[in-house]
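During the reporting period the student researcher (J.K.) took over the structure-prediction task from the postdoctoral fellow and processed the backlog of single-chain submissions. One of the processed entries is reproduced below for the supervisory committee.
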Amino acid sequence: MPVSPTYRPEPRFFDLGPDYADAVTAADFPQTILRLRNDRAAAEVGLETLSDAEWIAAFGRFEPLPGQPGPIAMRYHGHQFRTYNPDLGDGRGFLAAQLRETPQAAALREGGDRPSSTDRPQAASDHVASDRPRLMDLGTKGSGRTPWSRGGDGRLTLKGGVREALAAAMLEALGVPTSRALSLIETGEALERGDEPSPTRSAVLVRLSHSHVRFGTFQRAAYLGRKEQIEALVEHVRALYHPQVAAGDAPGLLAAIVDASARLTARWIAAGFVHGVLNTDNLNVTGESFDYGPWRFLPFYDPGFTAAYFDQTGLYAFARQPEAVFWNLTQLAGCLKLIAEVEPLTEALNGFGPAYIRELRTAFLMRLGVLSLGEAADQRLLDATLALLRDGGGALRWEPLFFDWFGGFASSARALSGPRAKLYQGEAFGAFRFALMEHEPDRIDRLEHPMFAAREPEEMLIEEVEAIWSAIAADDDWAPFQAKLARIEAARTAWGFLA
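J.K. obtained the following structure tokens:
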């Protein structure tokens, strides 16, 4: 298969051996209809020059890319809604390949527009410079049965693939560290599902992400009492994803993962995003969001908003996500007790709260497009923004506030003459306006993008998601899906965030 000269095969997780994964074979699908190819993401690992036929061979039939050993289903355990499950693992997906990102992609990532907050120190989780490009995974969803499928069919609904592609695109645009939907191929099977109209169409999704090593990967080794596996995982993760941590320093590695997880959680909150299923097998060691099932974006400020119909206690509600992530980190720390002392692990865990608050300030400054003025002023702005969102409720909604006031007080004329002008008055708005006035705009030239001439922001509410799917289900009309992705891409360019 011909590939770009920038393509560099480099297997890594495969080298850990059979204790961590099982060799598998992809399903033989009756059809392979290409529905989405993300060439911008593909270019990051040198795969953008594949023809459509080569693309389908690689991501529909899973013929191994040059230099790759073939797919493996990763082994892991996990807490699901805080109940331990030792019967997990890749049941409908696998790790298809691991590639280094291109030097061009690394340079763009490192040289791009970072949030300008001086409140945020260099974190232990910050990625290494562009002279050491990141290792990236190609992971699948819906690629067939594996030894860990249990009673499942190993398939993915087409609707599920469409929803994941939309979620990942929107999160990337909003500056959240996230996997990207690299490829979506419809596979021509009729699937039966108990929670949606059936039979329904099938698909296979390929994600591009920084790592699929989950907290649950460590949990499996700890459950089996395999100290040597924990040590091997620590070295693997440290060397490839957190090389600033010294060899053998398990507490240092935990601190790096804590920082990365705090940053991810803060970005979810600033984006108004609810992941829905924050089990320990859905969090990874690089602090990158992935595996989008019953996700939602907030329509308006609602701390108790849940995404999953089966989350009847609100365990993973919007405002409880920091608590959920911290709880999961404590489970990871428990695994590391096999090879490290409790006191330094506890110290690393205790860094989550301060890191989360610091990252939340940074994330809200980023969303409002303003510069840091120091911890006290930045906290005033964060508090005032949340108070205004709470006060505005359903009339204001979540995303429009950040759209109206992006660029700080430089946007006051636009905001006060827009569709929500009447909402911008009263005590809560007065406090917000005062706090915002203190902060200088960050890269004010971004306001020249045509998106900011619109009256409404680009949102991702469930009603629109369902309408996009309805057009596909009823008429095989992919135009609304493609149009939405194009608008999200324009928004990504306009915001200029970098996860």
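The committee noted the following: The longest strand covers residues 180-191.
J.K. will present the remaining backlog at the next meeting.
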